[in-house]
Design brief:
Blueprint: E1 2-3, E2 10-11, H1 24-35, H2 37-63, H3 66-83, H4 93-110, E3 114-118, E4 133-137, H5 138-144
Antiparallel strand pairs: 1-2, 3-4
Bound molecules: zinc ion.
Amino acid sequence: MKQCKTCEEIKTLTDFYSGRNSCKVCVIERVKRSTNKQTKTAYDKDRRKKKGDELRAYDRERAKLPHRRAAHNEDTRKRRAKLKDAIPDDYDREGVLAMYKLAQKISNLTGVQMHVDHTIPLACGGEHNVKNLQLLAGTLNIAKGANVNFQLNWEKYPK
Ligand SMILES: [Zn+2]
């Protein structure tokens, strides 16, 4: 006898495919769900509703892992950018992710918090793509805000 990890019913071993922790019924259900986009969306929505807090806490903890941070920052930025329709057709995810990874690396090495900045701000119609990205120290990025013609005042920011 074995307990199914999904429906938690205790069933005989013949009700399980070998090496599976869920019973045949549950495995089949899951495959059906994952191959039907509509059912999958409905299921995900329902799961979010029931276990939302738990899942969000999990996401937050996962984002703290060093190897996830760059990707997480990029995801956050992408989500915001999407809101503003700033993702172009030729969006280069690899390239953009590389920028975020580089910023992370420089921050770790120098202790200076680096930001990935949109040269032309999203608010001014700039694209969320490699061409429009630059690395800026966090303090400068905050000073820049949503200004297009930002002039660095080096006297204000001693090296
Ligand atoms: Zn089951």
